[in-house]
């Protein structure tokens, strides 16, 4: 039975472990790097198939998440692929802990997943009896991808949609990407929950923690309803081509 934890380690247990592991179901793991190791407190995802596993992101590098992943996969004879939702430091910082990691450039990401027409082409990535769809969504960083898991219907969106500050340096690309992602969902790929890579909102609508806060008492849940993607798409469409700060209950768009 798939589930989310009642609460994540929000930094208020500063002497606790450097990570939190949650088995969403028997083949899906959500890992949070503890806030006390780094204020970003990023979330990582481990998706397990019958032939290989995919780890999305490696954290900031301030926690030994390789040991965590090794333990999670112990006893399974699986190839591990390590890729990223995008190439920012808080998601690739642990790369050197792993043996083989997909590079951070558009060219390397496209080559690994077999995307020949970036960013318009959506491709599949087969873990063995578990097919993922990989959707290029540049705009926040440049080599951003979203991952849709057909089995759980979870949509992993990295830093492009999560309950927090969505930084957008490339407004035009970001609008197009969210449009394409919403279109992918509307075209017959139903979403159970949208999962990003951070929590930066409190449990009060549209209210964020200060940048760099060491503790997050009363965090917004990690998981977002699928309607939140629709809401973001419509907000970006309504905002038009000029970058604008958009404060919504479950996300804040911050042009850069
Ligand atoms: Zn990030």
TrEMBL record:
InterPro entries: Metallo-B-lactamas (IPR001279), NDM-1-like (IPR050855), RibonucZ/Hydroxyglut_hydro (IPR036866). Residues 41-198 form the Metallo-beta-lactamase domain. It comes from the Bacteria. Keywords: Hydrolase. GO terms for molecular function: hydrolase activity. The keyword Hydrolase applies. The keyword rRNA-binding does not apply. PANTHER family: ACYL-COENZYME A THIOESTERASE MBLAC2, METALLO-BETA-LACTAMASE DOMAIN-CONTAINING. This is Glyoxylase-like metal-dependent hydrolase (Beta-lactamase superfamily II). It comes from Kribbella italica.
């Amino acid at each position: 039975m798939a589930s989310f934890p009642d609460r994540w380690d929000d930094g208020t247990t500063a002497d606790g472990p450097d990570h939190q592991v949650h088995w969403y179901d028997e083949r899906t793991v959500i890992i949070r790097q503890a806030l006390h190791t780094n204020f970003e407190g990023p979330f990582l995802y481990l998706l397990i198939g019958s032939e290989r596993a995919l780890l999305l992101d490696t954290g900031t590098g301030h926690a030994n998440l390789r040991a965590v992943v090794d333990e999670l996969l112990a006893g399974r004879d699986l190839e591990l692929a390590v890729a990223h939702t995008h190439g920012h430091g808080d998601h690739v910082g642990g790369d050197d802990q792993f043996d083989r990691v997909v590079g951070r450039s558009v060219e390397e990401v496209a080559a690994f997943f077999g995307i020949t027409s970036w960013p318009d082409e959506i491709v599949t990535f087969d873990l063995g009896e578990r097919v993922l769809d990989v959707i290029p969504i540049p705009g926040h960083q440049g080599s951003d991808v979203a991952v849709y898991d057909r089995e759980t219907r979870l949509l992993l969106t990295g830093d492009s949609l999560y309950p927090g500050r969505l930084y957008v340096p490339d407004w035009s690309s970001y609008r197009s990407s969210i449009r394409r992602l919403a279109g992918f969902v509307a075209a017959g790929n139903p979403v159970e929950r949208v999962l990003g890579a951070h929590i930066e909102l409190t449990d009060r609508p549209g209210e964020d923690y200060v940048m760099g806060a060491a503790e997050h008492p009363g965090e917004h849940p990690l998981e977002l309803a699928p309607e939140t993607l629709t809401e973001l798409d419509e907000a970006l469409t309504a905002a038009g081509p000029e970058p604008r700060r958009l404060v919504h209950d479950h996300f804040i768009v911050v042009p850069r």
